[in-house]
Amino acid sequence: MYIKLAKLKVLLSLVSSENVFQVLSELREYSSEVELDFVRQSIQAIGRCAIQCSNAADKSVAILVELIASQVNYIVQEAIVVVKDIIRSYPDRFEYTIPTLCAGLSSLDQPDAKAALIWLVGEYAARIENATALMDTFCETFGDEPNYVQLQLLTSSVKNFLKQKDTGAQNVVQRLLRKASASENPDVRDRAFVYWRLLSGDLGRASDVVK
C-alpha cells in the first residue's frame, strides 16, 4: 500500500502536458484497485491532472464519468467531488456531466460528496430541470448533516430560488431557512438570518450578493 502511494506521488510530480495522457492511463488503472485510500487518491490525482494540464481536461472528465458509471459507491462519491473541482476550474465547459452526477444523489452518504453535488445544483439550477426537487430531498435530513453541508445547502437553495423564482423553490428555501434559524450552530443560524433579510428585500440585489 505505502509503495503504491509513493509511486502515485512520484507519478504526479513528473506529470506534464507532454506525458499527461500516459499518466491518466495509469491512474485509470489505479482507480480499479481494491485499496480504498489508494483508489480515492488516484481519483483525486485525475482531477489534479485536469486542472494542471488543460489539454487533458476532457480526457480526465471522460475517465471520471466512466468511473461514476461503475456505480461503486465510494468511487462514485470521490469522482463527484473531483468533477465539481474541475467544473469550478473550467466554468461552463463540462455542464454535460451534471445529469450524470445528479443521478447518483440517492447513493451519497459522504458529506464531501453531498456538499459537492449541492454546490453544483445551486450553481447550475437554471439548467437543471429538477433542481428544486433535488434541493427538497435534503430538507428532511438537514439537521443531521454536518455544518458545512448545511451551509452549502442554504446557499444553493437560495441560488435555486433566485434563478427559478417559482412557488416550489420558494417553499423549499423557506423550509430550510426555518430549520437553519433554529440551529444551535451560530454560523448556520447567522447565515439563515442574513438570507432571510436578503430575500425580504430586492431580489435583484440579492442575486448580486449571492453569486
Key terms for this structure?
about 210 residues, 12 helices, single chain, 2 domains, mainly alpha
Write a compact overview of the structure shown:
With 211 residues, this protein is an all-alpha fold. Helices cover 71% and strands 0% of the residues.
Write up this protein.
With 211 residues, the chain is mainly alpha-helical. It has two domains: 1-97; 110-211. Helices cover 71% and strands 0% of the residues. It has twelve helices and no strands. The termini are far apart. The model has no long low-confidence stretch (mean pLDDT 89).
- Number of spatially distinct domains: 2
* Poorly predicted sequence stretches spanning 5 or more consecutive residues: none
| Element-by-element helix/strand order | HHHHHHHHHHHH
Strand content: under 5%
Sheet having the most strands: none
Radius of gyration: 19 Å
Q: What is the helical fraction, as a range of percent?
A: over 70%
Tally of helical runs:
12
Q: How far apart are the termini?
A: 42 Å
- Outline: elongated
**What is the average per-residue confidence, as pLDDT, rounded to a whole number?**
89
Question: Pairing-aware structural class of the strands and helices?
Answer: mainly alpha
Total strands: the figure is 0
